[in-house]
Design goal:
The complex is a heterotrimer. By secondary structure, chain A is an alpha/beta fold. Helices cover 39% and strands 25% of the residues of chain A. Chain A has a six-stranded mixed sheet, sandwiched between helices. In chain A, strands 2-1-4-5 form a four-stranded antiparallel sheet, covered by helices on one side. The longest helix of chain C is centred in the first third of the chain and has 31 residues. In chain C, strands 1-2 form a two-stranded antiparallel ribbon. Chain C has eleven helices and two strands; from the N terminus they run ααααββααααααα. The C terminus of chain C is likely disordered. By secondary structure, chain C is an all-alpha fold. Chains A and B meet through helix 2, helix 3, helix 4, helix 5 and helix 6 of A and helix 7, helix 8 and helix 9 of B.
């Protein structure tokens, strides 16, 4: 069953076509990867799927519903979450609170009750705190729970973003270069984490440059170049594709 | 974990309440009462302003406009129309809430310098209107305001005002701390930290920015209304650009994103000019220096810097 | 055109030229550092008040004027070196508060060191009004327009024909690349503050014979200069010029036809309208979102 269906999707900035007429389907429960050189339009695609950019044309269907151009927070409510290529951390909060923000939609948030901090609010907050701590432990950040986010090392922040995204209980999780800037050991751990996320029934789409990670973990790979689809298929199919070899892998990227 | 946040939420309020309760016995004369009451009024504004600037990260250089609108609404409705003060107060808050709500959406689409400039322009427009509508406000010469009364009981003693302002401040601080430590508060802080990440987490950032803008405006108007009845005389300088900057400086000095910092900042900057009257001519020089030096050497403000320092020493 | 309208236009253009000079200062500093210098208006005050007090110490007016401009330049450079540079990596809010603090500090200092009275400078070349098609123009207006045009031309030549001017534009466009090609971006920042201070001070000197100067005169002139920069598009030189003239003319027309009491509101209403509906201004390239 397809979870995400993209048809004829385009985005241009000024005169530059960042994404052109893209057709792409994400199957429920699978791990997908998107690869391509810098400027191929991968992050732009993520930004359109999550509502940060409005597409110039084309449609995005999620779970059978047309979600093209919906605001970001509404897409979040429907079950789309993501991490960011350049970290987007709430540096003014603790690690635990960062992940608790991810529980926003699952918390009670009536304004007057919040002002009075009624027992209902306290209970709902406790639930969020508990779940956030659980997720932090699950991604391997138990030691950092009470710390301030600005004291965390880079690799830990990347995991914290993943925990925050998971806190939303998404159906679809988009990870934008989760291994960038990580060493081999950390990359291996991210690899395992992605598989565990997938085992929880969450559909994962990954933008990544680390080919070993991509080839090892993906059920399906989309290759983009200059905003267009160059090829797609399994790791083996993509590796064999002459266009990909010529345009991308061949360049030793 | 649970105990810690609840303790920090109520511990501080408790300390504040104790200070407010015992302070009257240490105030030698009405001059000191006046300083403390004015500090409390400014602190109410600053706690609200800090929710907007320090927590949600949205600057406003025009909040004296809301303070003055609250003050003048009370004055005009009570004295020109003869309404009961409490009804005037409520109506003033409603008017300010509606005005703040109406301008919040276009204004809060802006960021950084543009937001600063737009809020500044808004404040100055309010200030000019107060200066020019002489029939309503008395213009630059100001207008007298009759005293506050509640249930037929007129508040005319300093001690009476002290309890009203002190009680209001304690409640304001308590509500603010409750709010910050809720999903709504985390959403506001998330808007400050990263607007796009907040949205991805499902936060309707526009809605929350509008909400906190209106809340901070209403708190400023409430404080303004108390101020009008307390001092008994209003001039448009209460809504001036400089007054707005004073409020921001109090917030910044005490500490961004620190509720108690705002109370301390308000108290220091209200009291200092009163006790340094010899340096009256230097008030602006001093204010400007405090702003610059705090931001350059202690950008986190007094209370958070103090807390960091203590943490470092103890750990 | 009625002579009344012509009269309003003339006075609008005159005061608009001053706003343009102040607005140019905002744009130059913004380009170099992405800082809005809320103390820009104080340079205007220092220009006028400085000239008054240097002259009252016995210096001839031309010397006093040069002295006041130099004083503003020194203060501008100090502001950059002592305050802005130390907070380079601070948030926008922090920097806004620093420059507002600087402005209140300078204003307070002027009130204490000089005084809090109104002062006038004599007109540069007499007060004999000139009649033009039923309207009246004082010679000082011509001085203001002439000097503003001369400054605009000089700046155009500076930014487009000289190495250092091009380096400044390059730094504004891409500071990182500018560093790579060996431009000393620190010097560029100092130069921008110096230039902005000089422009403000020149504006302050030019206007002092027409509108008395005072230690608080910088607040409104600064804010209106800023609205000129916003209307024209923050960072655009030609934009600041056109924006200044538009704000000045709108103000003069509002004062003439609507209410002189609400003259000062005009600039701020324009600011709000431009920010709400056209945040990058007339000539601006950057959208407000980028800040």
């Amino acid at each position: 069953m397809s979870l995400l269906e993209i048809t004829g999707l385009s985005k241009s900035f000024g005169g530059v076509q960042a994404v052109q007429e893209l057709e792409y389907t994400v199957e429920s429960g699978k791990i997908h990867s998107i690869i391509g050189p810098n400027g191929a339009g991968k992050t732009t695609l993520f930004n359109m799927v999550t509502g940060i950019f409005k597409p110039s044309s084309g449609e995005v269907h999620f779970n059978g519903q047309d979600v093209t151009g919906l605001p970001v927070h509404e897409l979040a409510a429907l079950g789309i979450s993501r991490s960011f290529q350049n970290l987007q951390v709430f540096f003014n909060m603790t690690v635990l609170e960062n992940v608790m923000v991810g529980r926003h939609l699952h918390c009670r948030r009536e304004f007057l009750q919040s002002l009075l901090h009624t027992p209902a609010i306290t209970r709902s907050d406790e639930g969020a705190r508990h779940r956030a701590a659980e997720l932090l432990e699950w991604v391997g950040l138990k030691a950092y729970v009470g710390d301030h986010a600005d004291s965390l090392p880079y690799g830990a922040l990347k995991r914290m973003e993943i925990a925050r995204a998971l806190a939303c209980e998404p159906k679809l999780l988009l990870l934008d270069e989760p291994a960038a800037g990580l060493n081999n050991k950390e990359t291996q751990e991210i690899n395992e984490l992605i598989q565990q996320i997938s085992e929880r029934g969450i559909t994962v789409v990954l933008v990544e440059h680390d080919m070993r990670l991509v080839m090892g973990v993906s059920d399906h790979i989309l290759v983009m170049d200059h905003g267009k689809k160059l090829a797609e298929g399994t790791a083996a199919e993509v590796r064999e594709n002459p266009d990909v070899v010529a345009a991308y892998l061949g360049r030793g990227d | 974990m649970k105990g810690a946040t609840v303790a920090s939420r109520y511990g501080g309020v408790f300390v504040l309440a104790v200070i407010v309760a015992v302070l009257p016995w240490f105030l030698p004369n009405s001059f000191y009462f006046d300083v403390v009451i004015n500090s409390g009024i400014a602190a109410i504004v600053c706690v609200g302003l800090n929710l907007l600037i320090g927590y949600a990260g949205q600057i406003s250089l025009g909040h004296a406009g809301f303070f003055a609108l609250g003050a003048y609404s009370s004055a005009i409705l009570t004295d020109n129309l003869g309404w009961p003060p409490i009804v005037s107060l409520g109506s003033g808050l409603l008017v300010v809430a509606l005005l703040a709500f109406a301008i919040a959406r276009p204004i809060l689409r802006l960021k950084g310098h543009y937001l600063a400039m737009a809020t500044l322009g808004m404040g100055i427009i309010i200030s000019i209107v107060l200066n020019q509508e002489v029939d309503l406000t008395g213009g630059p010469d100001g207008m007298p305001v009759s005293s506050f009364s509640l249930l037929g009981q007129e508040v005319d003693s300093e001690l009476g005002w002290y309890w009203i302002v002190g009680g209001s401040l304690i409640i304001t601080v308590w509500l603010a701390l409750n709010l910050i430590d809720s999903a709504v508060g985390r959403a506001l802080r998330a808007v400050h930290g990263s607007e796009v990440a907040a949205q991805v987490a499902g936060v309707d950032t526009t809605r929350y920015k509008i909400l906190i803008f209106v809340v901070s405006a209403v708190l400023a108007a409430y404080a303004g209304s108390l101020f009008a009845h307390y001092t008994g005389f209003l001039t448009p300088s209460e809504g001036s650009f400089f007054r707005s900057i004073e409020f921001v400086t109090m917030v910044v000095l005490g500490g961004m994103a620190s509720v108690f910092g705002s109370v301390i900042g308000a108290a220091i900057l209200t009291a200092l000019p009163q006790f340094l009257t010899v340096f009256h001519d230097y008030e602006h020089v001093m204010f400007g220096l405090v702003m610059m030096l705090t931001m350059i050497f202690m950008p986190k403000g007094l209370l958070p810097s103090l807390r960091n320092w203590i943490n470092k020493r103890t750990s | 055109m009625s002579s009344e309208l012509l009269q309003f236009l003339l006075s609008g253009i005159t005061v608009g030229a001053i706003y343009a000079l102040v607005g140019l200062g905002f744009s130059i500093i913004y380009n170099a550092s992405h800082v809005i210098n809320f103390a820009q208006g104080e340079f205007v005050m220092i220009g006028g008040m400085g000239t008054v007090f240097i002259a009252s110490a016995g210096a001839p007016f031309p010397i006093a004027m040069i002295g006041a401009v130099l004083l503003a330049v020194v203060i501008g450079i100090s502001l950059q070196k002592l305050a802005i540079e130390r907070a380079r990596h601070a948030s926008v809010v922090t920097i806004i508060i620093i420059t507002i603090g600087a402005s209140i500090f300078l204003r307070g200092l002027a009130g204490v060191i000089w005084n809090r009275d109104f002062h006038s400078l004599p007109a540069f070349s007499g007060e004999q009004p000139i009649h033009v098609a039923g309207a009246v123009i004082v010679p000082q207006s011509l001085w203001i327009l002439g000097v503003t045009v001369a400054v605009a031309v000089a700046l155009f030549v500076f930014f487009n024909r000289t190495m250092i001017g091009k380096a400044m534009l390059g730094t504004a466009h891409n500071p990182f690349a500018a560093k790579l090609v060996g431009i000393n971006t620190n010097n560029i920042l100092i130069l921008s503050f110096a230039l902005a201070a000089a422009l403000g001070a020149i504006g302050g000197i030019l206007i002092a014979p027409m509108a008395p100067t005072h230690y608080q005169v910088g607040i409104m002139l600064g804010l209106k200069g800023f609205s000129a920069a916003i209307v024209g598009g923050l960072g655009s030189g030609p934009g600041a010029m056109v924006g200044g003239l538009l704000v000045g003319i709108a103000e003069a027309l509002a004062a003439g036809y609507i209410s002189s009491n609400y003259k000062d509101v005009v600039a701020f209403v324009i600011i709000l309208l431009v920010l709400f509906f056209m945040p990058s201004g007339l000539f601006g390239s950057r959208a407000s979102e980028r800040v």
